[in-house]
Design goal:
Largest sheet: 5 strands, antiparallel
Distance between the termini: 75 Å
Number of helices: 6
Structural class: alpha+beta
Number of strands: 7
């Protein structure tokens, strides 16, 4: 009998001492899991301010009644209006250099060709802009919009729906792709 009581007492204290992840910790863990930059040979330059999602991509998403209910689409639109992330520099991604948004603006204000020359000399050959991720359905889906730029007429982007399958994020659908 003493062993049973002792077991329950130990179980109670062990159970109470386990630390549950906060929603912020879960969010940060999922972002790190989704946005992996370590596979690249070169350092990635990421603009500190998350990019906005192009309106035409949002319009295409609104018509996706196969993947989302009207309530979920409304949740997505609310997260687009009120993004969770306002600055990527709070994350410590592997193999990523964060370029301050104001520095980026100053570089490319005015003469685009001159801006690219300075950028390539000081930072690298390309940069990336990523929207604040939109997680849905208990972190089983995520929407991300991204642009990659490699010159004044070089770049591309897409609005992608990821689905978590067996603990890994995989592309489920692309709403819009563009290249220049």
């Amino acid at each position: 009998m003493k062993n049973i009581i002792l077991f329950f007492i130990i179980s109670f204290f062990v159970g109470c001492s386990e630390k549950k992840e906060t929603s912020e910790e879960i969010f940060n863990k999922e972002i790190k899991s989704l946005l992996k930059f370590g596979d690249n040979d070169n350092e990635v330059i990421l603009i500190s301010k998350p990019t906005d999602i192009e309106d035409y991509c949002i319009e295409v998403l609104k018509e996706d009644t196969i993947n989302f209910t009207s309530f979920e689409i409304q949740q997505i639109l609310e997260q687009i209006e009120n993004p969770t992330i306002s600055d990527w520099s709070v994350f410590n991604f592997d193999n990523v250099k964060i370029l301050d948004y104001k520095v980026w603006l100053d570089l490319f204000r005015g003469d685009l060709e001159k801006g690219w020359k300075v950028f390539q000399k000081e930072y690298g050959s390309r940069y990336l802009e990523i929207s604040s991720p939109i997680f849905l359905k208990n972190y089983s889906y995520c929407l991300v919009f991204s642009h990659s730029y490699c010159g004044s007429n070089c770049g591309g982007g897409s609005f992608i729906l990821y689905k978590k399958i067996n603990g890994k994020w995989e592309i489920s659908k692309q709403y819009c792709n563009f290249m220049s």
